[in-house]
Amino acid sequence: MSNEVIFGTIFIALARTFIAIPGQFIDNAAKAKIDMKLRRLIWKSLMNMPLSFFDKTKAREMVSRTTSDTVNVSSFLMTSLLPQITSLYSIIMTLMIVNEYDRRLAVSFFVLIPLVALVAFIQGRLNFKAVSEVTKSNSKLTQFLAERLTNIPLIKVFANEEKEDIRGKEVISKLYKSQVKAVTVTAIFRPVISIVESLQTLVIVGLGIYYVPRGAFGIDVWVAYYLYAKDLMLRVNSIVSLFSAFKASQGATERISRLLEEPSEEYRKYLIECEAKKDEAKKEIIFENISFGYGDNNVLLDVSFRVPAGKVTAIVGPSGSGKTTILSLVERFYKPEAGVIKLGDVPVEDISLAGWRRKFGYVAQEMALMSGTIRDNILYGIDREVSEEEFQRAVAAADVMDFVREFPEGFDTEVGEFGSKLSGGQRQRIAISRAILRDPEYLLLDEATSSLDAYSEHIVQKNLDGLMKNRTTIVIAHKIATVVNADQIIVVDSGKIAGIGTHEGLLKTNEIYKGFFDIQSQRQFACQS
Ligand SMILES: Nc1ncnc2c1ncn2[C@@H]1O[C@H](COP(=O)(O)OP(=O)(O)OP(=O)(O)O)[C@@H](O)[C@H]1O
């Protein structure tokens, strides 16, 4: 019996050590794999979300969904849940083995287990609350820092450094206080846990002192019981702490599930294969009784018009009247609430979104760039081979050479985060050269030359005119020259069509257009004089 107990105990201890080493490796590798799979799933889902999703979601929240929430889930699965299955098995086996040694020793566990479980439960709850508080304060600090650091010019312009300093200190202090709270919980529970451990030892030792001299069992059984009891208590402790780990991962799991359940753009729904049908560029784009709003903010009301194929349509109207929204609907960033948009006689809903977007070149007022070089940005989204000659032609047409020449590294110059190392006009010229390379069937320009100086504007406008020629183009225009030369002008006012016609026609019949023309003429005159 004696040898059996001693060798059995040593064998279990050794086996545990040898199993633990590869076990730990497998756990960590599996955890990393779960992280990777979850992150890929989230990323894919984010890439297929409609623009309306990003209107209501903070980018930083999506970053933490992809980085920290995934870790919470995988940690729960691999470091909390799975090991507890073996813990449960160990507890049952220990109870059975000790019961075989001596029933009275096994009964002692029914006193020790509830005691340890109760303390671990209370500690888990308090710890969970404290750690949640730290996580919350931490993400508030991250949000604060990211927002302020990307808006330094705004802070400087309003000389708000002192106020921001005070606000920053408050956010940092909040994180500090929550950390101290968490540390206090740990500090309070350390002595409580020590007391419980001492009690355990007292019971274990007490049982030995009482029963061994009376011959109930030998010292070997007593030592084995001691080792089993210690291990059992650790396992009970970790099973109970599963509760707080579950709570911590519950929030993350819910957030990830909610994200994955969001409806995607049905990007790959191919009802009509768009790419093959080049001749569709010959078809007009038709808005039939379109109404649309962002949430409760109604922007377009029963809007109907036709964009003739191969012609330039200019949209004019006061700020906030819905001009950019019309372009967004053409690009199918949003779905109209009422009415239908057609290409010829086909509703655009029946045309694959990927193919549809590939038909368009879009140059917005503010074009953000990706970090990388100027060349990377010019070629962004161009999924075909571009010869150096073609590249040079495009950059010359958009007057990009004018500023690239100034940089020692030329087209290999890094543009910085969001293209921050370039001016608005330089960023716009990159966007225009990108549109030229894309050679789209449809061109959407949102006041595309607004950030350029007079000289560059002249060159770029000349090339844009070339690009617009025989191409279906919708341009949101504030400049007289663009408007006057357009084949058709749509006047938008408070989300409604206030007039459609040519410059001469509207000038005679449309008061809003006449007002717009007069203001723009005066502005242009003021700029020139
Ligand atoms: N993503 C959005 N979410 C919520 N509201 C929006 C969004 N984009 C625009 N709006 C609102 O829709 C209305 C029309 O905006 P839109 O950008 O279409 O006007 P616009 O005529 O192009 O203006 P501007 O000439 O100043 O660029 C505005 O009241 C604006 O606040």
TrEMBL record:
Domain ABC transporter residues, every copy: 285-519
Superkingdom assignment: Bacteria
Transmembrane segments: 6-26, 74-98, 105-122
Residue span(s) of domain ABC transmembrane type-1: 1-248
Name assigned to this protein: ABC transporter ATP-binding protein/permease
PANTHER family cross-referenced by the UniProt entry: ATP-BINDING CASSETTE SUB-FAMILY B MEMBER 10, MITOCHONDRIAL, ATP-DEPENDENT PERMEASE MDL1, MITOCHONDRIAL
Gene3D superfamilies (alphabetical): ABC transporter type 1, transmembrane domain, P-loop containing nucleotide triphosphate hydrolases
Species the sequence originates in: Lutispora saccharofermentans
Any GO molecular function: ATP binding
Compartments in which it is found: Cell membrane
UniProt membrane topology term: Multi-pass membrane protein
Pfam family, one: ABC_tran
Key words of the record: ATP-binding, Membrane, Nucleotide-binding, Transmembrane, Transmembrane helix
